[in-house]
Specification:
single chain, 120 residues, mainly alpha, 6 helices, 59% helix
Length: 120
């Protein structure tokens, strides 16, 4: 089994829960403070996108019944839009950086949350 397959299985397994005694997980948080996984993330994102892209083409997506698949297309831009921190320079520098590219992260997140709003 390839590394990517292990990672995909780990992501799938993280969402498994017992509805008798647990609440469904709302998200999967992946700690990567030392950036060990940084080189694998683009490949993982590509694999997930491949799998979810097909769901977005089905009739269920047109009916609004595939919100997670729809949300991923917006979340996919977050690694690029958040790669550079806005926490440097003066408040004016931060405002300029936000107006150039930082707003894209907020926009993507709002759109992804709008897709998930139906999940309640």
């Amino acid at each position: 089994m390839r590394v990517i397959e292990h990672l995909l299985n780990a992501v799938r397994g993280a969402a498994v829960y017992n509805p008798e005694v647990q609440v469904a997980p709302a998200c999967i948080q992946w700690q990567n403070c030392d950036r060990q996984w940084e080189s694998v993330i683009p490949r993982l994102r590509t694999e997930l996108e491949k799998r979810l892209h097909e769901r977005r083409l089905l009739v269920w997506a047109e009916l609004g019944e595939a919100p997670l698949a729809q949300a991923l297309k917006y979340l996919a831009v977050l690694p690029e839009t958040t790669a550079c921190s806005l926490e440097v320079g003066s408040p004016g520098d931060i405002a300029v950086a936000y107006s150039i590219s930082g707003w894209q992260a907020d926009n993507a997140m709002v759109r992804a949350l709008a897709c998930l709003h139906r999940l309640g």
